[in-house]
Amino acid sequence: MNTWRARLLPPALAIVFSAVLCSAVLLFSGADPVATLAEMIGRVGRGGTAVDILNTAAAYYLVAIAAAIGFQMNLLNIGIEGQYRLAACVAAIVGGAISLPFGLHAVVVVVVGAATGALWCGIAALLKVYRGVSEVISTIMLNTLSIGVIAYLVQTFGELRGNTLGTAAIPPSGQVPGLSFGSAGTVFGLVLLSVAIGVGYALLRDRTRYGFDLRATGLSPTAARAGGVDSKKMVLTAMLLSGAIAGLAGLPEILGRDHTFTINFPTGYGFAGLAIALLGRNHPVGVAFGALLWSFLDKSSLTLDNIGVPKEIVIILQGTIVLSVVVAYELVRRRELAAEQRRVGRALATTGGDRA
Amino acid sequence: KDAGGRDGGSASGQGCRLAPPPAAAPATTTSSERTRQPLPDASQLRVGLAFDIGGRGDASFNDASVAGLDRAKAEMGLAEVKELDAGAGESEDAKLTRLQQLAREGYDPVIAVGYAYAGAVRTVAPQFPDTRFAIVDENVQGIPNVTPLVFAEEQGSFLVGVIAAHRSQNCHVGFVGGVETPLIGKFEAGFVQGARAAAPDIEIERDYLTPAGDYSGFQDPNKGAEIAQGQLDAGADVLYHAAGASGKGVFSAVHSAEAQAIGVDSDQYHQPTVAQFKDVIISSMLKRVDLAVFDYVAAVARNDLSTFPTKFDLSIDGVGYSTSGGMIDDLVPTADAYKAAIARGEIQVSDTP
Amino acid sequence: MTSAFIETAAAPARRPMPGWARAALWVGIAVVAVSFTSYQTGLPELTASGTVQSAVRLGVPILFAALGGLWAERAGVINIGLEGMMILGTWGGAWAGYQWGPLAGLVAAAVFGALGGLLHAVATVTFGVNHIVSGVAINLLGAGTAQYLSTLVFEPVSQNPRESPPVPKFDTYSAQPFGDWLQWLEDLQRVGISDVAGILGGLLTGVSPITLLAYLLVPVSYLVLWRSPFGLRLRSCGENPVAAESLGVNVYLYKYSAVIISGALAGIGGAALILNPGQAGYLEGQTNNRGYIGLAAMIFGNWRPGGLLGGAALFGYSDGLQLRDGEITVHALFYAAALVLLAVVLLQMWRRNWFAGGVALVAAAIVYSIYWYTDELPEVLTAYTPHLVTLVVLAAASQRLRPPAANGLSYRRGS
Amino acid sequence: MNTSTEPDPGGPPARAGTPAVELTGITKTFPGVVANSDVNLSVAPGEVHALCGENGAGKSTLMKILYGMQPPDSGTLRVDGAEVRFRTPAEAIRAGIGMVHQHFMLADNLTVLENVVLGAESAHGIGRKARARVLELAAGAGFDVRPDVPVERLGVADRQRVEILKVLYRGARIIILDEPTAVLVPQEVDELFATLRTMREQGFTFLFISHKLDEVRAIADTVTVLRRGTTVGTVPAAEVSSRRLAEMMVGSALPVPERGPSTVTERPVLTVRGLGAVEQDRAVLSDVDLVVRAGEVLGIAGVEGNGQTELVEAVMGMRPLRGGSVHLGERDLTGLSTLARREAGIGYVPEDRHRQGLLLDESLWFNRILGHQTRPPAARGPWLDLAGAKADTRRIVAEFDVRTPGIDVDAAALSGGNQQKLVVGRELAGDPALLIAAHPTRGVDVGAQAGIWEHLRAARAAGLAVLLVSADLDELIGLSDTIKVMFGGRLVADADPLTVTPEELGAAMTGAGESA
Ligand SMILES: Nc1ncnc2c1ncn2[C@@H]1O[C@H](COP(=O)(O)OP(=O)(O)OP(=O)(O)O)[C@@H](O)[C@H]1O
Ligand SMILES: Nc1ncnc2c1ncn2[C@@H]1O[C@H](COP(=O)(O)OP(=O)(O)OP(=O)(O)O)[C@@H](O)[C@H]1O
Ligand SMILES: [Mg+2]
Ligand SMILES: [Mg+2]
Fold this sequence. Notes:
heterotetramer, A: mainly alpha, ABC transporter involved in vitamin B12 uptake, BtuC, two-stranded antiparallel sheet, 72% helix, globular, B: alpha/beta, six-stranded mixed beta sheet, 17% strand, binds adenosine-5'-triphosphate, ABC_transp_permease (chain C)
């Protein structure tokens, strides 16, 4: 199903449906949905919101790509949450402890982040390949365990600044300068890393042998095996890759703004990543739009306090979008499949099909 | 059917061998003296308030800052207050945005509630040099338009430690922390020192729900109850909690064991969400965020921050203990003696456990 | 004419122990190991009735979630949305409980959870959506809806958008005077007797109706699912829905019922967080991933009621223990683990399975040396003992697990 | 026969003259396919009525309509003279119809008893009474059954008995058997037929589908032939020859695969030595030796489940070995991965094209890449060569007459025969030295079948070595230069395709002595 209709219709339907549902909820609770939406959109033009949306979308994009790599193979890496946080923590510790020339320093930090994410995810991968433990359960457990490991690391290697426990600051040689828009904020330099990862993912998925193996395994493990794809190896490498990309997600903020990992480091990107990957159907461009949409909803929801609308409406909106987008995809898929079968049938009938 | 619950750790002992309290001495200046100067007119001020997670209704420092502003409205005619709420696990830029939004909309002063705003205030304050910022719980220094509102939690906790030691029949008390952060560490440190000062042989249980970074420890009353039950089972009979919403669980466990509890931050005896347990809340460690906020607004209205206290400690009643319910009335002289000794500097209370 | 049946169906020479007997054996070994450890290390907490009660209280919400998972997955629907359904249950329970008392709260929690289940069923059964995807969405929706409703409904009363006002609780009941007698035995501090008394006392005292319901629902789930026509049909939908449909079973209907029941059970799990004595009302974030843990407990228990009871108990016990001086008590668990591993070694030797025995022996040595060379564990790590234990046990045992054959597959009638 | 097994006297006694089942004008279309078109069928009570027809003729579809699993587009159904309309199998069951499916419909994890009583719990519950009834029915049909064994532990013949018990338990009087003998060895077929005869005496009516014409003539009273979805005719089984039946089925003389002149050379391509494999402590392959030479088709005959699948998987490197070696030419493949073996020059037509051959939800050109993802024209180094893959897909579509509107449609949209042609075209691309073809024409219509045979012959003439596994003995005899018979995981006999008959081969396949 390669038609544009089949690709764009479901997300559009889903967003419209979710918007209608949320409008109903808003009306029910006595708020004005049009004003709410106008306020949220108007918000983008104000202050640093546009830049924040972009910056957060970059992080969301990374976690979503990490999720998408797993999804391509029907692997559910629910552990992205733990991977990006642990990776950010370890990368910040290393970044604060070493001293290298400008540029190289940041590269090392990025590599450490990716490696940490990959290793943490690798535990789940090994358990799955060699012990048959469902990655869903193991990554859920690893998410919780990562909290303890982070607490331990920050306590052991961190320092106290006021009331905040954080890792040693990364010196300027390891910081990544951003693109400043004055009072509208600064776009992180590592947003470019997200773009690069996106391009890499697109190439990998559609143009390389590895990407083919990945998709083939996801579509039919049995057919892939008969076609010479080593499924154990694919599970392992896909999980490592997913973990590595997840490990990058916290770094734009750390290298671009905070220069340290504190115990207040944001949470929740991992689950957002799963949802965004679904929204964008694992497609590099689709996921980019999904990340921007998610980030927009997040950032502009901050303004809902101003007009007295509970900002939890945005979580409902996000949940509805995810659910309705998959339902819409399924409905459109069924319709397209039937249509295609009819089309093939007709084509065969005219070329002299062998039946009836 | 169980009647009052099992007497897991209820008092059966004879109490501690108590150390004599320090000699009482004339009290030093208190805030009541300072505020005796006439209140300024704040009707020109529009205050922006940025909450930390928990937000309005947390019955803790968020609510206390609201209370301070409410009083400012009532007594100084404060014109307008704008509150913005925070979300759990949000990223730094959300905090930045919140402060910037308040500053840009012309709110002055802007009060950031919670040390989580430390980085954001450091970033935003220089961008708005004409706006005055205050931050609760973090000693941000070196930025001219930022005023820290910090407290000597360890001193207040010291006093409730003394009270706990005097009230314990088993000579065994407990501390339940929510999340093992440095800030909560100050509560633990003070409580332990206070209890030891009053009863050198006392046994003290100390537990946290979760380690640093896992903020679910402030939001899990069930685990709070289990930890408290564990301490009660171990023999503790007076528990002090600094566990946010998980404190409810502590109170309920204490309640069903018919032991005694000490609240935190505000006077929890009067707090509606735990009203069913009030008869076991013998006291609360008071952290007067309301007072600090009120004083700060007054100082801003007066346009004179030079005499504003650098730390709200016992000497200016920035921290203290409550006596609501009258369950510790007999201990007031003792506690006040310790209080005076601390205020005089005779007793130094360390802020790390 | 008869030979083929005899031949292919003939049981292997060494008839394996029935599942329940094996489970009981291992429970026995674990209890003995822990009692012995408690005696050796001088830590009565390990088997104190208080610890066991704590384990029960912590385990009950997980048990409900696990039962919810069991019902859904036995009908072939993976339910990772348990967490969201649990959250809905906490909200519903607090809302109705606040107005009409705990019993109404329990019912409302079940209804709210069931609504989440219904949504999951619509998505997965009717629309054939990937079960995990739907579950993730329901977790988002459950959390968002509860927060939104809480802002609308609770804030005016409790002054806090994240909390409900206090909710009336169930009373607790104890098997008196049996409980006192057990307490007396426990206080004697005699090896073995006191431990068993502690464990029994913990199970039988301070029991609330919800806990009782949890105890009951395990055998009831077993009887319904394995001993009733309804259960047979339901399970057949998880094993081979096409076959079931060909025999006139309305697969959609059974899947819907199963997922809705699953949601209701998860909702009751949520209610257990607010209606049991000593617990607060609704509080944002209070489920704290217990739904996921329930799912893990169910997998751990091999999709069987008795097994998931074991999973929930293990989780509740290690959580209860780590909350009581975890640095020391969890450390002592290493000693118990070494003992259990020794039992495994003996068993494998007896079966002449030298390699497995050797591995277990090495593991026992490692675990014991950790115990020997350290005095306590860092608290930041012991806080997550239950999760680590789950992971380790799954790694050791998951190859024996046997999920329903059609679990997670989407089924469409007539294709 | 034990009289206690008398079936429920629930149904009305069949009156002579009223057909037990009468289907008139049944039409059923699937997207793009007319499966049944104006089918008429009349089955007398108490007879065994056979239904014949080539693959895809619409037999299964017709039976599914009778059993309420699929609604007909038009036409009427009568059971015992009364017009019925079944929306679900439950309604058909209530009308006394039972069906044993071509692919068993059993839940492996459930016990025999549970499988039998499922859906019919209202009769005797699921407890003691049900067990007694099952044992009683089994005894009546001459089965010995252990109700508490999980079905997964049963062999095919026993599973079929469970299926029959299911039907009996529901009190069915009219029983549909869809290709019941496909999976059975001849002795088991005999046992089955004995059961059917007994039950026929007791008044049961059977609808019996089979491709094996001599079986049909052995058991059936009447035969109806379907061709391309419509009824060709109904004849008494006693009066019709197999040849005549075959002609009715295909409309002309049966196409026989022609071998053509031998092209066998002396150059060994595939050499397998001492191959062994085990599964759960059971030897599924032991000590298999074989050599396939360039230009040779080596056929493997065997009843399903005797190690053919395992042999193919072992040669393809998809199954761990317990011993032995696999050489391609001089090269030792024993430790290599499936991919490396494919790269070394093995093409592989798997036995189940849906599960193993195709990515159904992807385009034809994407499917072209599968198995060739490391080689031109599909790939260049680590990169895919999409243009090359598409061009080669167009070539396959043209050369192999794959009927499709284009190469961008999903593989799922093609009919089975066209899917199979695509798979064969793909596996013959890149000039492999060896082709492993497992059931290359299974479920494929005659036209496609002839096309596939033609391509195999052409490739063989060009020097390709072929290892052919097939359950279709005519195909095997017609195509192979050498035939080996597999039984119980061993190669037990050789046969010369020039002289061997299907009957002799069939005997050898059951392990009954050495063949010619
Ligand atoms: N569910 C379906 N959807 C689409 N087409 C179908 C479906 N079921 C059957 N068909 C088509 O209907 C035709 C008749 O199929 P049917 O299964 O009745 O054949 P059959 O005579 O049983 O063949 P075989 O001998 O292989 O069992 C086939 O061409 C098949 O492609
Ligand atoms: N849903 C479907 N869509 C398209 N084609 C189908 C569908 N179902 C079946 N077919 C085609 O119909 C053919 C026969 O279908 P069916 O499922 O009845 O197989 P069968 O009769 O059991 O075949 P076999 O004898 O090979 O086991 C298959 O070759 C398949 O390609
Ligand atoms: Mg501790
Ligand atoms: Mg068929």
